[in-house]
């Protein structure tokens, strides 16, 4: 971090501490964004690598097969997490009636979690004979993995003005027994400028779910800004939305007509797909670290 950057960060933080800081909301938001960008620039993409992470798996194109594939990926990653000696907690799940997931979010705790898992973010593709098709035809389905850093509650790397948030509530099916289902404790928060959204259903109260949701939203915004900064440095274009379908996959899992897992970014591949789906993804993790 250069002295000029240090000086500018100090100036901005001092300005934010003034009593009339929010008198001009447009100016205040511009100052907040400048401060956040400077901190990311100064501290680099490795700042949260040693910390915890939040992983979400979303189903994309492929119907029941995609939701089943999301469940397969969830099992693969939780096996990997267990093998690493890490732990995880469920934050939100939206499952179907045959064991698949439309989406599921977990918080992963351990040493170097974010640095290890962050490059798993992207669209994953499955090719197999569909168990949901009576004609036993080959089917292609897609799921997307998102990994964001878990920011501490006290972190000032991302500051979100209240007027940029939209919150809705619903009945929760999380811990706490039947009483929980009678009260609207589940929370969905949307960050209006970016359209990023989070769901939290597993905390016991509305306030706890809201606090957790804002924490996750900060992680999403940090990751977005980190990706944009890296893309700018490399002269690349980064889309704020990624379609979970053909053409966007980072890795393919092929079960038919042959067995192969291949990462399309690093060209790392293996025919031992059963081992991979049981959590043996070190080949890909190690190759990705050079990205």
UniProtKB/TrEMBL annotation:
Q: Does the keyword Cell membrane apply?
A: no
Q: Which UniProt keywords apply?
A: Methylation
Mention any Pfam family matching this sequence: PCRF
Instruction: Give the record's GO CC terms.
Output: cytoplasm
Q: Does the keyword Disulfide bond apply?
A: no
Q: Listed GO molecular functions?
A: translation release factor activity
Peptide chain release factor domain sequence ranges: 8-120
Family the entry assigns: Belongs to the prokaryotic/mitochondrial release factor family.
This protein is called what? Answer: Peptide chain release factor domain-containing protein
- What organism is listed for this UniProt entry? Candidatus Taylorbacteria bacterium RIFCSPHIGHO2_02_FULL_45_35
């Amino acid at each position: 971090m250069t002295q000029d950057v240090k000086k500018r960060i100090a100036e901005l933080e001092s300005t934010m501490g003034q009593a009339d800081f929010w008198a001009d909301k447009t100016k205040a938001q511009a100052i907040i964004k400048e401060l956040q960008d400077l901190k990311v620039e100064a501290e680099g993409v490795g700042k949260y690598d040693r910390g915890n992470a939040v992983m979400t798996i979303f189903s994309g194109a492929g119907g029941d097969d995609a939701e089943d594939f999301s469940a397969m990926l969830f099992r693969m990653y939780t096996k990997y997490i267990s093998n690493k000696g890490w732990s995880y907690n469920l934050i939100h799940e939206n499952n179907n009636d045959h064991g698949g997931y439309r989406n599921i979010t977990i918080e992963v705790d351990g040493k170097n979690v974010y640095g290890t898992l962050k490059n798993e973010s992207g669209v994953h593709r499955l090719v197999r004979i569909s168990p949901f098709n009576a004609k036993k035809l080959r089917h292609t389905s897609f799921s997307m993995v998102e990994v964001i850093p878990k920011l501490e509650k006290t972190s000032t790397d991302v500051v979100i003005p209240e007027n940029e948030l939209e919150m809705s509530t619903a009945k929760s099916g999380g811990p706490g027994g039947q009483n929980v289902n009678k009260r609207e404790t589940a929370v969905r928060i949307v960050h209006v400028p970016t359209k990023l959204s989070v769901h939290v259903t597993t905390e016991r109260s509305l306030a706890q779910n809201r606090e957790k949701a804002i924490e996750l939203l900060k992680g999403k915004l940090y990751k977005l800004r980190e990706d944009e900064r890296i893309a700018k440095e490399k002269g690349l274009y980064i889309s704020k939305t990624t379609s979970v379908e053909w053409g966007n996959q980072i890795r393919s899992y092929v079960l038919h007509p042959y067995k192969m897992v291949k990462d399309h970014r690093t060209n790392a591949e293996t025919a031992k797909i059963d081992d991979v789906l049981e959590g043996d993804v070190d080949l890909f993790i190690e190759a990705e670290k050079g990205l």
